[in-house]
Amino acid sequence: MFAYVLRRVGLLVPTLLGLSILTFALIHLVPGDPAQVMLGERATPEAVERLRGELGLDRPLHEQYGLFLGGLLAGDLGRSLKTREKVAVEIGNRFPATFELALCAIVFASVVGVTAGILAARRRRSLVDATVMAGSLAGVSMPIFWLGLLVILLFSVQLGWLPLAGRIDPSLAVPKVTGFLLLDTLFAGRLDSFGDAFAHLILPACVLGTIPLAVIARMTRSAMLDVLTQDYVRTAWAKGLSERRVLLVHVLKNALIPTITVIGLQFGYLLGGAIITETIFAWPGVGRWLVLAVAARDFRAVQGGVLLLASVFVLVNLVVDLLYAVADPRVRLAGGEE
Amino acid sequence: MSEARRNLRAFLRHRGAVIGAALVLAFVAMAAFADGLSPYDPLKQDLLQRLQPPSSEHWLGTDDFGRDVLSRVLHGSRVSLRLGLVAVGLALFVGGTIGLLAGYYGGWFDLVIMRFMDLMLAFPSILMAIVVVAILGPSLTNAMIAVGIMAIPQYARIVRASVISVRGLEYVQAARALGAADPRILVRAILPNVAGPIIVTASLGLATAILDAAGLSFLGLGAQPPTPEWGSMLSQGRELVLVAPWVLTAPGVAVFLAVLGFNLVGDALRDLLDPRKT
Prior knowledge:
Order of helices and strands of chain B: HHHHHHHHHHHH
Helix content of chain A: over 70%
Oligomer: heterodimer
Low-confidence stretches of chain B: none
Distance between the termini of chain A: 12 Å
CATH topology of the domain at 97-298 in chain A: MetI-like fold
Distance between the termini of chain B: 19 Å
Low-confidence stretches of chain A: none
Largest interface: A-B, 48 and 43 residues
CATH superfamily of the domain at 97-298 in chain A: MetI-like
Largest sheet of chain A: none
């Protein structure tokens, strides 16, 4: 097991180094002079030259990368061209919002998805099965930017049940401790604020969780069906165990192994893919900020945002792989033999 | 011929395949005959007719510039179809070539290029597309390129795996023994035998490409106004959600059905072409 962990963690270094090179290269792949592109057509030559100096574009390439990497290791991602704020600070302020949203979305998707998958596998080719399969196909085909607008129209505008956008009603805001509003409101002992923050989370989390929900339901169903045909399950039935016990204890335990991998991978995608959902619900996270930075051609901000989201994705994948090895001895044994 | 007929019959017996194919055909027909089917010019503004609800004159209503929503949705199919085909074509050509060469020759080329593909996969796909748009600037063409580039590693991996599984087989060795040159072996002997997984991936890939490109346009990073593109129409319609919800309905349904169609066809093809199932 130790050898496997070591090997898997060892792979992290070249991957993160590769990511840093790719994001560094981003600014150099821009057609034309990046400083000119950032400042626009009407910038004076002096201003362009000043920005080139500020970005270090007048230095040799290897020196530029050395500075970029050095800054990165010191937690310095440079300054945003538009706001003049430190990119690392801006990201730090927004990342908890993205993380909280993605976490709630994956919890929703996992609970509903695994339940739907079990129900479908339990009665294969039944009406429930057909409904789950059709629903999951619709889920993966759903443009979530459209779904988001529809649920806003229904639940916020027509029914008035849930708030339209944002993270919390400004009048109920609490002092920032962790940046995770569900926690901060509890720390402040404000149940009214907690309720409001939770209500703000429901629609975006459900919309963001739609595609993972569909994928998880499909995966759980197919993993359950695979396990259901195994000999040991037949033995369990033959012993006269109750259906509940066979399905939930004997089958689900093994069927969950691939499902957990899918849940982990989907969580990684959610952190990076919350961009559209954050835009629809005016959610003040990293994704929405990144889109604004791309539109404004604020390359330092884009580099920082992309690097952070991609690194988190890589780290989540690492955790998933390690969990997988804990759950399934075959993985770490195969790793040890190599 | 008999095998092709057998496959076609199996395809037609697959309920999902038939529904998917019908949706795809309808989508292609819309794109092909958009000019003839549209009652109005999709770009023509008529401010006296702005935000009209659906009526006999404007079946799906009008938007805030008085443009006919039905005509814009019909023309949007043309944009989305072209987008999907160009993006998948790009990914297939570049990724397929990389996979073919990496799988056939192996060695350091395989090692280096596939590590690079792994690195690309370390980006969540929408993030990768945003990086490309950040570099090239927001436009419809750049969205096509972005969506195409982000799918390259997927095709490279699938083609490489398929090539490795057939390159040691007897008929390939026989072709080599007969003195066939590498390009000939690759194109004539190997390519036809890895076509199955490529067709499945391309079909599902069209669904993803249409969805992602519409997403980019929705974010303002793809097609720009006044182009009648579904994602961009939804983005412009966002402000109108309270006063004119019909502006949002049609483009959303159109994206959903087009994506659903390609997903159904892709799923069905996978069922039919998967040798484990036969």
